[in-house]
Design a protein that fits this description.
By secondary structure, this protein is mainly α. It is 69% helix and 0% strand. The protein has 14 helices and no strands. The longest helix has 31 residues. The relative contact order is 0.21. Keywords: Cell membrane, Membrane, Transmembrane, Transmembrane helix. It is found in: Cell membrane. Belongs to the EamA transporter family.
Length: 345
């Protein structure tokens, strides 16, 4: 690689790495602005900031979506709404470090579930990596002494399972084939926001969005805008820009460092103190998920080529970015930009 090419690659990688950093810090941001009574209200406000920009930017492509594509994206949005609700309630009841690391188990759960659906066997190295990650979660959640996992830990684990369902649904749902990633993301976030708004209207579900907004201070608005502008819009457009200048696999690899940044921000900024046992758990989770991604990518057969999802992308998410024209569906365990929600957490 020439010096010019290396410099160009670095300039492309750096913004993608920044996306991983902001996603890792999103758990701390959500914890800073959300209470148990304002979870749904915060989610409505967060998406209310994002959706008008996405709709205005991609209006022409939204109008070109077929009825089947809209309905399929709407169904995916319902699953995504469950991910956001579980994650955000979970963050309220656990530490930012625990949330960011436990949710990373999606990278292990996805190939496990996919192997069951395909009737294939996973390699011994992947199963060992999965066991290492699970052991890490046990140690992390018991850092202060062995006891039952907290409610927040269990909710985040539920979010990881639900995110796995979302990833698999996105990769297998035929009705959304041919729709661009930006439109799919916009419809999903719109459907999710509708779910949050309906839940907010139900009695006993916490503060209404306008009531929560009225009680926000400057710090609360800063956290909310950080979640909306950086963790969603910035991430979305960086991925759209980067995937056209490098490979989806390279983008996915950089975004896979998110758990590292979740641990760094939680320990350095939030003052999380997992203890020696918890720190050992952190190391095992990071090692297990990294090893698991490598093992899954190296042992699974290539997925069949399908109609590429072209042009644009970022949650929830789990990470909408447009695949290139030669792209295929992700192999089990591979997090392809454009096939996972862009918003966090």
């Amino acid at each position: 690689m020439t010096v010019t090419a290396a410099r160009r690659a670095w300039l492309t990688d750096l913004p993608v790495l920044l996306v991983a950093v902001v996603w890792g810090s999103s758990y701390l941001a959500a914890k800073g602005v959300t209470t148990s009574r304002t979870v749904l209200a915060v989610l409505v406000l967060r998406f209310a900031v994002v959706l008008p920009v996405l709709v205005a930017t991609g209006w022409r492509r939204l109008r070109a979506m077929s009825g089947a594509q809209v309905r399929g994206a709407g169904v995916l949005g319902l699953i995504l709404a469950a991910v956001f609700v579980l994650e955000t309630y979970g963050v309220v009841h656990t530490s930012a470090t625990n949330a960011g690391l436990i949710i990373s188990l999606t990278m292990i759960l996805t190939p496990l579930a996919e192997s069951r659906l395909r009737g294939t066997r996973l390699s011994p190295s992947f199963l060992a990596a999965a066991g290492l990650s699970v052991l890490g979660v046990v140690l992390l959640t018991q850092g202060a002494g062995f006891s039952a996992p907290s409610l927040g830990d269990l909710l985040i684990l539920g979010a990881a399972v639900t995110r796995t369902v979302h990833v698999l649904a996105m990769s297998r749902m035929r009705s959304v084939d041919g729709a661009d990633a930006m439109s799919l993301t916009t419809v999903q976030l719109g459907a999710s926001m509708l779910v949050f708004a309906v839940l907010c209207a139900a009695p006993g579900t916490g503060a209404a969005p306008w009531a929560a907004a009225a009680g926000f201070g400057a710090g609360d608005w800063a956290w909310l805008l950080y979640l909306s502008v950086f963790c969603t819009l910035f991430a979305f457009f960086v991925q759209m820009w980067a995937v056209r200048r490098t490979s989806p696999s390279r983008v996915s690899l950089l975004l896979g460092t998110e758990p590292v940044w979740a641990a760094v921000t939680g320990i350095a900024l939030a003052g999380d103190r997992p203890g020696l046992t918890g720190l050992l758990g952190v190391l095992l989770i990071l090692a297990g998920t990294a090893w698991g991604r490598t093992a899954a990518d190296g042992t699974e057969p290539p997925a069949p080529t399908t109609t590429p999802v072209t042009p644009e992308p970022p949650a929830t998410a789990a990470k909408p970015t447009p695949p290139g024209p030669d792209d295929t569906r992700p192999a089990p365990g591979e997090t392809r930009p454009g096939l996972e929600p862009a918003a966090r957490p």
